[in-house]
Every structure is written in C-alpha cells, then in structure tokens.
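## Example pair
The file below holds two records. Each record gives the amino-acid sequence first, followed by its structure token line.
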Amino acid sequence: MKFRNRVYSLTRPKRDIFRYLNPIIRPVLLLAARRRLPQVNGEIWLKGVHSTIEVIRDRWGVAHIYAAKIRDMWYGQGFVHAQDRFWQMEFNRRLVAGRLAEIMGKVAVSVDRWMRTLTIRRTAEAEYKLMNDEAREDLDAYTAGVNAYIEQKRLPMEFWLLNYQPEPWTPADTLSWAKMMGWSMSVNWEMEILRARMIEQIGPELASELEPNGLSRCPTIIPEGIDFSKIGSHGIDRSDEARPFLGPSPYEGIGSNNWVVSGMRTESGKPLLANDMHLNLSIPAIWYENHIKAEDIDAVGISLPGVPGILSGHNGKVAWALTNGFPDVQDLYMENIRREDDGRVSVEYQGEWYESKVFEEVIKVRGAPTVTEHVIVTRHGPVINSLAPDVSGEQSLALRWTALEPGTMLQDVLRPTLQAKSCQEFHESLGNWAVPALNFVYADVDGNIAYTHAGKIPIRKDGDGRLPVPGWIDRYEWVGYIPFEDLPHMVNPKQGFVVTANNRVVGEKYPYNLGGEMMRGDRAQRISELLQNREWVNSEYYQKMQFDQVSPQAQVITRLVGELNLEGRHRAQELKPVVQMMGRWDGNLSVDSTEATIHQVLARELMTILISRTLGMPGDRKGKELDLALHYSGKGVNPVLQPTSLYMERSMEWLEMVLQKTESHWFDQGGKETRDDILYQGLCSAYDYLNNEFGPRTSDWNWGRMHLLTFDHILGTAAPLREFFNRGPFQVGGDGTTIWATHSTVYNLNSDHIYGPPYRMIIDLGDLRNSLGLLAPGQSGHIASKHYDDQVGAWFKAGYHP
C-alpha cells in the first residue's frame, strides 16, 4: 500500500485551551499521542492485498483511495478508517455489543445491560451468515483492512490511557454498527412509552391536544381494557446511572436537510444538490470524508467509520443525499409472561402458552464482579424491561423492530448504489435497502432529479403503531412490508425542486401508514421559501441557505408578542422596550441577537405556564412517576440510547398552535386568564430570568451567551482530559427550527451540548469539481493530528472546501 501526502502551508489554530492543563500532564499526553499517529507517507506492506492500493491525503486529511480491484478498495477503506478513527470504531462496537464495562468499569454496566437486551449483536451475527457471497466477500475485505491496521500495533492514545489491547475486527462489528445507526434514527419505541403514560396520567383527550401532529390528526385506536399504568419507568431509571460518565450520547440528534433543484433553475443548467445531517457534534465527528475508486466505482462523500461505502455523495454520474423520514418501524407489544416451576419462561399467545427464548448474557466488569443478565425474547422481540415482571412489577414490553431482522444497507445495496449511472438505476438499487429507512434525494448528470423513501416499513394487521398493543393476540401483528414499488417516489416534479427536512412525507390519501413521528416543517418551509423566491440558484446561494438562521416559528410567536397590549399592566413601562424590540424582529437567531434569546426563554416560560396545571412543573417528579413535563419538553427516556424525545417537536408545535388562538382552556390558570395574560406572565418571567442571568442591559442578552457548543470527546467528561480532548465552548446561532440547525431542548437551553450538522455538502452536477463539503471538527480522531480540529473555524463561518 502506497501513501502520498499533499503538503500545504497551513497555520494551525492556537490551542489556548491547553494552558489550563497541568504543565506536567499536558506534555506527557501530547508525547503519547504523537507517538501513536498513523503512518500516512511512504509504503506499507500488508497481507491480503491483491494489488497496489494508493492512498492520497489532501490538505484537509481526506483520504483518496485508488485500487485496481473493488475488494482491494474495500480493504483500503477499512485500513484508512482504522488509521484515522479506530478508537471511535472500537468504542462504537463495544457500545452496540454491550461490552463497555470491560474497559470502563461498573459505571457502564447499565448501558451494557440495555444493549445486551436489544440483541443487536446477536442479530448481526445471524445476518452475516445469510449474506450472499458478493456482499460477504466485500465485508470480509473491509474487515481485513481494519485488522491490518490493528496488527501494526500503533494504536490511538485512548488505548494507552485505558491500558488494554483491542480484539480483531469482525464482520458482525460492522453490521452491528450499521444497525445502531438505524436505532439512532428510530424514535417510536420511546414515544409509545411516553404517549401511553401521558394518556394514563391526563386522559386521551388532553394527550391528543398536546400532540397536534400526532394523535389529533391520526386518531389512535386505544385497545379496550388496556391498563397503561403498568407500563413503568424501571428501565428508564436504571440507564440514568451511566450518563454522568459516558457524557453526551453519540446518537443525540435526529434531524437533517436535503434538497435538489433541477437544471431549469440553476446557473449551470444542471441539478444542484445539498445535504446536511444533524447528529451529535462530537469529536471526532460521526462521519468521515472519503474518496474510493476501483473498476467501475468512483465515489466521494461521507462514510461511516466501521462501515464500508459512501452514504451521501456522488459517483461521477449520480449524486445523492439523505435525511431521516421517520417512518414507524418499531412496535411495543405488551406480553403476558410467567415463570414455570422448572424455571422456563412462557409467553401467552392466542390463548396458549409457549416457551420463550432466554439468553444468559454475562457482562464482564473491569475491577468488579461480572453481572449476569437474562434476556427474554418473545415472538415479537426482546423484552426491553429486561427483568421479568415478577421482579420489576411492570407490564413486560417486547420490542419488534425491523433492524432485529436480517437486512441492512449492505446486503445487495452497497455496490449497486455506487455503480448507478442514472436516477433510474439509483432508484432500482434502493429496492433492497432495509435499515435505516431514509429519504433519498438524488440527481444525475443528464439533468434528472428524483426522490425515494426507501427501507423496510411494516404493514400492520390492525392499529397504527402509536401505542403499546397486546402481544397475546394476533390482532396487531405485522403482515408484511410496504412493497418497494408502493413507497413514496417521484421523478422530475413540476416545481423543479425537491425538499426534505424530516417533515411529513405523504398526505392523507397515501394508502399505507408510514407513522406519525416526523418532525415539524419549519426547516422545510424555510428552504422552500428561499428556493421559490429565486428565479435561479447557484452554489453561493446554497451556501447562504445552509447557514440561514431565520425561524418560521419564531416569526409567529414574535408577531404575537409585538401585538401585546401592555396598557394597565403593572410592568408596562419596564417591558415596553422589549415588546417593541420583538415587534421589529425578523426571526433571525444570529449569535449576537438579543431578540433570539428573549424568544427562546419566553417559549420555555410560556410552555411551563401552560402545561404546569396538567403535567406539573418540570423537575417535580414524585416517587416512580415519570416527569412528563420534562419529557414533553424534550427529555428522552434513555440518557444514552435515546437522550432526546420527539415530544420536543410536538410541544413547540402545540405551543405555537395554542398561542394563535384567542381562546383556549389552556390559558385558564385558575383566574380565567386570557391569552394576553399568559403572554404577559411569560414575558415577565423571561425578563426576570435574563436580568438575573446576564444583567439589566438587554444588549448583553445575546443568543450566543446562552447557545453554546462544545465538541465533546467520549473521554472528555472530567479534567484534565476535558481540556485536552474537547473543543469549546463556542457561541453559535440558530436553533432546531432554522436551516442552520443547532438543536437544543426547551428544558435545557443553557447546556453547552448542541447537536447539528457536522457535515455540509453541495454537489454541482454541472461540474462535479465545483462540489463543496466541510466536516467539523476535522477528519482525524488523533488529538496530535493537525486534522483533529482544523475545520472548526470554517464551520462557524459557513466555510467549505472542494
């Protein structure tokens, strides 16, 4: 394998953060890190390669891999992924296999128990055996490349810090991680739990009102006689233990944008495509830029360390971009389970009792005794309560999920998507795409643009998948999957563009149920507005669009505040300048905007006022009750595996909907309050909060002081490693409703953990050499590499590289 490194003169950013480190510890850590940097120049002789593989790294550290044979190309990609990101790959495979406690001790046991319960690793091992020869050989080649790096024994410094050696990489590690990406994009299981508890606590009518895009539009058939009070919080509670140590979840963040405009409206006369996917802004980034070339494959874009291929990018003929379509691919089944006298576990179905599978999972714990977990798997899937009901006192819930059946994006899909020469061929290549189910927007050099919603989406015999259903009868079984030819698809639409931003995919006339857990449409609305307002677009305009920080939701609420009549109010004189300021605001959440800060805090205060009588105050949880107010504001049910709740979307949509009404029972707080009363109360609370937090001068209330971003490393949760590995905090504009999507939750505005688009991409089908991208914080996972954080500055300034 040959390596060439293009040399450029670069000024590295000052690392002022290092001055906070202990002067003895810092040089020791840096020296250890430098000694473990991978070889990126010269030649390396490796076993298992059939011909020369050439790897050229450009000025941003992007690896361009050239091979004569496709299998050698996969080998090279595996080797390069491992060179730059092996610690990340190692952590991820241990996470999904439930083996973190082996290296991190008992603090990670709760996470391991959850992951063993989900049985993702078991499913991946079974899937590998079912793959066809071509797919298996491709995966084996990639695996061999990763192991070739491991055998060099020049491992990242994280292994030195934790003092252990990695095991060889396996194909099941790759398949497991591909399925875990599906988990990060599937939210229905947690919404079923929260929705059921919401109904149990406040009743179906109020619960329906609080979910304007869900229950009220798509009525849920609540099975008669079902007691939702037995769906408890035991499984939620125990996972909280691991959060302080593990830090921000690698999977936090659930949104994305993509759009494409046909050549009829572009400067080049050919399609122009854009993509940015919103995930945890960690260090290193979850994505990895790559160029792979062999035989009839020549593809460039982003890849996923640990998985072969290019997920979003172009192959010289076709360009494609992804977003999460949020189809409902998960169901929770309430199971009747009993233990027999001989110790076997039985599950009731159709009036009969059947023996259930029980797997004994032994979790090794560093510095502590092993932990044994018994995982019950019914006909529907693993019981996610993990403990039997006679121990936990809860209704058992089994998870059925498409990813727990064989099939990912690797089987019969990996090569065809990269080899497609037209939109039609690309569409056909998605026919076997299974997990995760995604929105694909794509275009070809012949001028066609298209959209396909691809993936395995179940057809239910009855019910709509919004609530846990009885598993002891066959009424709610899956009876198949939506045929590929019936999945949403369009080619060359009349409007000349396609936009997806996690919004609703189809209208009410679509004959199948895709689910109702999609995000609200603010970003899609804003993207469409900006495209419709121009006769033609070019790359420069796309760059401005991707950095756009105007919120349609903020514009609605701000208009109501600007119209607020303060006459006769006790604090009229004090608040009048604020009301006037908000009335003039255009909804731009720039980093230096005072109005953006007021809007965000006001929205939180209004939410608290309106839901407190029904759901209680956030943080006022009593006993074993779930803090529904906090979950409705955006907190997920599992701090590591599902840290944010899609209720954060529903709650803000509900707030906007209620405030636009002149009368609503939600306004009545016991004194027959009106909408203006509620707006006034919220404004007073927001004003007082900001005055106490930032002082009396409104000019000091800029959004960036509250909206902070830190690129977190998994080991950067405590000093001195926090200052060594992490980068930030940085002030950042936007929020979850802007195209420049920097999400935070209503309940936690002051957190320095924000998720957003680590990678931005613009592809010009008129001349692919003009295509642009940017990956923050950088390509490398090695702290001593110049590519560890060299793209941070450009990311904040809406910069790109070719």
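Second record, same layout:
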Amino acid sequence: MPDVMSALPDYPVKSSFAGIKKVLSNSGLAAIEAPTGSGKTTLLPLMLLKAGLSQKKILLTQPRRLAAKTVAQRMAQLDCTEVGETVGYRVKGESKLGSNTKIIAATEGTALAMMQHDPFMSDYDWVIIDEFHERHIETDLLLTFVRDLRKSLGPKEAPGIILMTATWQGQPVEALPEFSFHRIEGRLFPVKNICCPPGITENLPGRLNWGVKEAAEQTDGRILVFLPGRREIEAARKQFSTGRARFHISILHGGMELSEQQNVLNYQGSQRQLILATAVAETSLTVEGVTAVVDSGLERLPVFQPRLGITRLDTRRVSRATADQRAGRAGRLGPGLCLKLWTEAENHRLTDRWDPEILSGDLAAARLQTALWGSSEPAWITPPPPGLWLQAEELLKRLNALDGEGRITAEGKAIAALPLPPRLAHMVYTAGRRTQAALAAAILTEGHRFKLSGSFSRRMEAARSGAEFAGIRKQASEIERRIMGASNRDRAVLSLGELLSLAYPDRIGRKTASGLFELVTGAPLRCENCNFEWAVFPEISGTGNRIFAETGEELDLGKIRNIHPSLFSTLRRVSYNPDSFKFSVQRSELIGKLELKKLPSEKADKSERLKTVKDMVEKKGIDSLPLNKAGRLLLTRLRTAENAGIIGLPSGKPEVLESEIEDWLGPWLDNDLTASAVAEALYARLDWQQQKRLEKLFPQGIKLSEGLEKKIDYENADVPLIRGRMQEFYGQTAPFSIAEGLIPVAVELLSPAMRPLQTTSNLGEFWTGSYLQIRAEMRGRYPKHYWPENPGSAEPSLATGKKRPE
C-alpha cells in the first residue's frame, strides 16, 4: 500500500484494496458488495486517486442530496482539504466545486444531467454508483448510459464503472456478465434483534414508546429511530418531548441543510441523543455512537398510478434487506440492539426485496432522458414494462417533447435540461410569465405541506413571502435562471389556471350537480373548497375512483379551447335498430371524455354503417342480422352442403360469414339494412354456376306424384325433411334423397289435423309395418278420409267423402 494512503482510516475496504485494484486494472468494471461501515463510500474514491488509478475525475453518485453533500464533506476531512478543493459536490440547485476538484459527489439525477451535457464523459476516469441496491429509475439509467458509452467508445476511451451495494441478494447479477464481483467483509459487531411482543398495542406511537423505552434501558449510546416520513417524525418529537425530558431529540431527513445535519451528527451535549430519522440515515450517512436502533419497519416511497397519471407517496412495510441494513447501524462500535416495531409473525411475512422502481414508476423522465441520449436500444439490466414505456412516450408527444417517431424535439431538449419533471418543465418552457411558472413549479416539486385549500393561487401568494418558504423561492429562482433564453419565440401571457393546465391537461375538470368534479379522463374528483365551474387540479391523490384534491385553479372554457384544441372532439355514435332496419347518428361535442353539448344528427355514411354492423355481429353473432325466410333457407342449404363435404359452394358457417362480412355485405349498405337486402347479399355470394349447382344438389323442394311439391326443411331437423298429410304420400315407396342420392330426406307424415303421426326415411317399410296400427286408429277418428289397406299402391289424394276401394 503506498505511503500516501497511510493517513486514511483502517476500514475494511482499505485492506481489500489490492484485490479491487487488480480487478479495476484488468477490466475497469467492478461490482463491490460491502456492508455498512466498511468505508466503501468515502475511502474508495480517495484510494483510486492516491493509487494513481485516476488521472482525470471521479464521479460518485448518491441517491439523496443530503448524502452527496455529507459524503463530500467526509472525504474532504479525510483528505485534509476543504470541500470544493480536491473533493466537491453537485446537487440540484447547488454545487461546491473548484478548478482542481477531482472527486465529485452528485445525486443520480444531477449525474444524469452531467452525462447529457458531456456525453463522452471525457473528463472522467471512473463513474461510481453507490447504494446500487436501492435501484431508483435514475440508478438504472446511469448504469445503462455508461455501459452504452463503453460499448460505443471502447473500454479504453470510456470511464470505468464501479457499482457498490450493501448486498447483491435479489439483484439481477446475470444481466451484468462483464462485471467482476468483489465482496468486502465488514467489521460490524453482532446486533441483537428483538421484535415487538404481541401484547403491545398495534398503533405506531404505542410501539414506538415500547421500543425507545427498551433501547434506553438496555443500551447507553445514541438511539436511532427510523420513521417513514416527516409527519411521523414530528409526532414522535412531540411524544418524547412531553413531561420530564430524558433525551436531546434530533431530527434527520433529506430536506435539511447540510449545516443542520452536521449539528445532529456532531452533537456533544450531556443529554442522551434520540435521533428521529427517515430512510436518509439507512445508508450513506454515518451516524457515530449509535448503540440501539428502533425501527418502525415502515418506509414512504413514490408509487405511480398509470390510470390516473399521478405519483403518490405510499407507506409500506420495509423489505427484509432494508430491515437488516437499518439494524446494522447499531453494530458499528460494539454489540448493538435493534428493536423492531413489528411482531415475529409479521417478521416472517417480510418480502426479501422490493422490485426496482423501473418496473412500476413514472417513466416519463426516463423516456425523455433516453431520447436525449439517443440510444434506440438501451442496455437495461431490468427492462421497463412496455405498457408504461409507451404511456410515457405518448405523454411526451402531447408535451411536444417527442415527435411522432419518438425522437426528441427542440422543446424536448430544453425541458430535459430543467431540474423538473417533464410536465412542469413543459409548463415553464411554454409560459409567458416565467416568474409565475417557476414559482408554481417549485411549489409542486418541493413538497411543502401547505395548510391552504381551495384556490391554488392562495399557495402562490403564501410562497412569495415567509421564512418557511425560502427553499421554494430559491428553487423558483434557479428554475427561472435555467430557462432564460431557452427560446425567443413569443408566448401568450396566461392566467395561473391556464398555466397549470399546460402541465396537467388531463386534470381539467367540470363541476357536476352532485358537487364532485368530473375530469376530462372521465374520473370523478372531490375538492371540498373548489367553487369553480371549470378548474385544473395540479395535486391529486387517491386510488381507483376515489380521487381527491385540496386545491384547484379556475379555468375559462373558451380559453381551454384556445390552449388545448386537441382536447376537443366531435363524437359520432352510429347505431342500428333491427326492428326498423334503420341506422341513426347521434353527435356530441366532447372535451376529453366529457360531453359539452349535443349536435344535430346526420346521416351515417357507408363506412360508418359497415363498422356498426361489424361491431354488432362481432358482439352478438351473425344471427343479429335481419334475416327473412329466404335468407335463412339459403344459409341452411349451404351449411348442409358443407357438412356433407360438397365443395365448390360458399361456406354458410357463422364464423366465415363474420370474417368476410365486409366483402359480401359491404356493397349492400348504401341505404338501410333490411332483411331482404341481407338475403340478396347472401345470394350474391354465389355466381350463376354455383346457384345452378345449389338448386340441383340442394333444391328448395321435392316433387311428388300428381304434381305435388313439398318444401324441404333444412333447418329444424337432423336430416333434411319434408312433411305433409299421409294421403299425399300414397303410392310412394322409394326413399327420397338430395345431393344425387348422397343425403337421405326424411318424411314427416301428418294427420288430417296436421299433427305428426310418424317420421320415416323409408316409406316402403312404413306402409307394411306400423302404418296398420295407425290406420286402425285414424279410420275411427277421421272416417271421411281415405285409409287404404295397401297405401304403397294406392293413389295419393286429399279428397274426403269420395268412395274408395277398401
């Protein structure tokens, strides 16, 4: 180990550096697994620099602003320099760098912006992605872009990649075949884990009280409490500040200034410190002196709802990997204690690891970044779901950030450069009053909890003054500075509502008689103090059909039409009435899915008629068409032919008729669709030769002696059937058939009252068989009718009262 490293602390990563150096020298690609407290974050970049493995710069990414600034400060301390000299940082809206800065700690989002600005990364030897296991969308994008860079430039010209994580368990290591994996054994002391006893109340304050009490009694160092968010932190601060103060209570979250965070970490008071923290204290922040961790087992993360197009903060149970990492914070100095505020039974139900954010998050910014990067096939380690990816692309097209082919536009490049989500970036870029737009964007991104409901303009007015809104005003100034000069085109000056609608055209809504608003997407929304007819709702929450908004901003329908002409459309509903055989057209003007007014009806054109008929047949089948007796007879004859294996005739099967309906029925849809028109269309499927063949093989009727003809029933029997009074068939002994004798035709013999007496396919056998019993019965019931003893040789007749030979 070179002498220049002797001053660095003896963390485990230092003793493992020889192996890491060998891996990096060979391939420039390393995946390092090291537990909390191993020194990987603060020591490895410095060792790369001091060992001569980096002649240029090193980019170290962190998932949070506070972590990036803290890591930079810690590395500067180890290097005996000031932040901004050898080590600096760059985060959203803030940086501390110098001309000689070699190591830059940056948030993942800022690192992406740096790569887009310098796509060849020509000033960098290494890109180190820390806390890779968190797998934010930006994490995956960073790795994808750097891998793409190495593929296009070659490993010698592109920076090397180092992935660092507390654990590779559950990660897709098979998608990183080019990386060498290196594990660093930690120096953690054992941590005793105790789950909450079943008898303790299930509410968080009660369990928290148990956990802090146990931690205070069993340990004597700092107590670190993990809570899901600032609301719970504030409630816990009040909970443990009442009565006789036993603790010095500190809070730690990502929204703090670096100086505030340092005051917490450097506390030297006489009272025991109780640190109430969010997930920011899980990883990169080193909280020294912690001997006990109290873990709520909860975390608050953004969850994207594709149907509503909103991202809401969802509180959920942590994974087992996260719980283990939190517990590890108690084992840095010696044996520690972790009080888990959930039961053993709940502990068994913890999931090992949550899915990466790219599988369920809002992908609009990621799609914009890939378009700006210019990669047509990103080398994802976990590909995004195609449906979410397409939804993101369609949104960006509506925002004019992508063209019809999915390529980035000039406006897309401008909004990608802004530190804002695409919706708000488009709003600021398009606005005439950019100061107003920048302030609105800052309010919507900074996450300040306002106590003002009703009109969004009340929040705008409040944010323009007051110390608690200083961060919002600072962010607004940075946004306005970044957008100045982006385009010289003239822009109309818009009202606040019109401005917000640029970002959220899908959240425009109209108040209904019930008091709810109905959005242009068709979803209902409740806003208690929004007394507007039309409004836009920039901040909405909820799930399913329960959507809420605390604020909205009034809109004028006429102005909406000017700003969002694509939202307006005319809906034509074409329907068919099979009773009247007529088509009708109902027309409405819509904004999104909301009906504004009904319009005068018009006549349906031929294409609309065809589509209506096709939709009807697809839903209800071919029998939904009006069919008269002739049409039904034709279809049954064709089906009989097909079932008999006769070729050369059109099919009569329903599925064939449905699939070919455009060809055979389309030409007959110039006017209303009657049953006779359908029958004519069906006959038109047969040419003259086919019609002759059909009539020859499958005639409509069969002629009997003495000129009588009986219609063949092809539809209501298992075999073709003719029927008539028994007397009509006297003298007939040969069987009837069609299709040149291939298909027999049955005979249904009827009484004088037209009631069935017998069905037979062989009259000769019937006359000498069961006929005799029927004759005896019928002679008594119908004595005036002719009932011969030998009907096979008798003459057919329907006459009554005439003397006949017995």
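Notes on the second record: Residues 137-153 form the longest helix (17 residues). The mean pLDDT is 89.
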